[in-house]
């Protein structure tokens, strides 16, 4: 049985999903969960992309001990230097340098000849090897590259010291048969290929990312790259949970498996979904809400008699399990903390205390507290850096014949308060106009979603907003039993993120 290594790029390619942007603290939270899931490599970001990305890679590198931390870099010395700086504290680090090799990219994007691409790839790997033992080279758009040239590049970068060579299907163009053949050819023709990791990286433009990754494994790939829930640029990347479950469930066929702790899959998927705002569709394989639900009578009858009639994966094997701890009004801090650990959180005492206080408040409003309630609560209370504003109160005057008017009171990081009122086209609009006035920020609301986190009349509502200010796009999430309060919390959080990006929150807190 071969062991396939898992390279997770949720924090890099996953964050390239349009509209997604994850703060440093959120990235650390996801990375710690990925470490628990047992991924071999975590691509924490693209350090040269922005100071924020460099900081995120560095923070993840400091906190994660059992997975190798990777930063992406172009074949540019400045990019590699920034990656080196960010990865200095990692227990195990890997530089991931890429350069496109396909004719389309060579001609139109890089404007380089084959010879120049070959020379630059070798030069980049040689430079990276001065600082890193582990260097991964990716031939971007490898799948649309002439096979002779691709083999030449792979051979040259191996000679220059690359320890992993990745063959991405950057634009999701391949069929499984074609993609597998590339790996077969490279295995046959490239000297030295048996001594390195050969990696696949698939995109889902034609819905074949997972099938292509599995075809690569069949043809000799030793590492699979992808993201949790398949998030990523355009249609996304190969969903790692699907790859892992396909290998596990069909190891009779693939004769390969991963070292993932599969029981952590549900938790990881939920965490990534919450922190990115990318909602997992109900029918999504492995982690969708319906993945283990049976609707029709004949199926229900079969499952009641013997689960394997209609279930090829046991829900418990991927971490969908029944509650062991039932929390309520009479629970104390120990049980609460235990529940947080069970749900996959690694919170500081300050964060636990804040979440526990809200939990007790919620107990007075709700009879039963479900895991989803706790997840929503904790997520809302996670301390994410210095927050410039906190919503203290929101009041609304509304009637079907009058103009809605809202007043809000915000508390600044230094303890001072600001209060404003405004009219709007609807309740939410008036709240948002009042917050704009109180903060003095001009932003555009580009997305607004309401979800019910839990069920019943006393359900928690979750609001997700996306705001734009100039080039900045941020998201915010708020949870409350009242959707208008949740709307206000989400909006204030998004504004805090804008301020954090502009560096103002930090200045305000330290001045
Ligand atoms: C397939 C992938 O997922 S690749 C990763 C994609 N991810 C990202 O691009 C996110 C992060 N990117 C960024 O923040 C920015 O693009 C930066 C900071 C890297 C570069 O920004 P800018 O200097 O403004 O350049 P811009 O993005 O407009 O253009 C990219 C430049 O890099 C060049 N380039 C692209 N890939 C590579 C590479 N692998 N090695 C060297 N140069 C490259 C392009 O040809 C272009 O060069 P040019 O300016 O001489 O025409
Ligand atoms: C940077 C590379 C590996 C990439 O994401 C791609 O080619 O899709
Ligand atoms: Mg990619």
UniProtKB/TrEMBL annotation:
GO terms for cellular component: cytoplasm. Residues 390-511 are annotated as: Regulatory domain. Mn(2+) binds at residues 13, 201, 203, 237. Signal peptide: none annotated. InterPro entries: 2-IPM_HCS-like (IPR050073), 2-isopropylmalate_synth_dimer (IPR013709), AIPM/Hcit_synth_CS (IPR002034), Aldolase_TIM (IPR013785), LeuA/HCS_post-cat (IPR054691), LeuA_allosteric_dom_sf (IPR036230), LeuA_bact_synth (IPR005671), PYR_CT (IPR000891). The keyword Metal-binding applies. Residues 4-266 form the Pyruvate carboxyltransferase domain. PANTHER family: 2-ISOPROPYLMALATE SYNTHASE 1, CHLOROPLASTIC-RELATED (PTHR10277:SF9), HOMOCITRATE SYNTHASE-RELATED (PTHR10277). HAMAP family: LeuA_type1. Catalyzes the condensation of the acetyl group of acetyl-CoA with 3-methyl-2-oxobutanoate (2-ketoisovalerate) to form 3-carboxy-3-hydroxy-4-methylpentanoate (2-isopropylmalate). Homodimer. This is 2-isopropylmalate synthase.
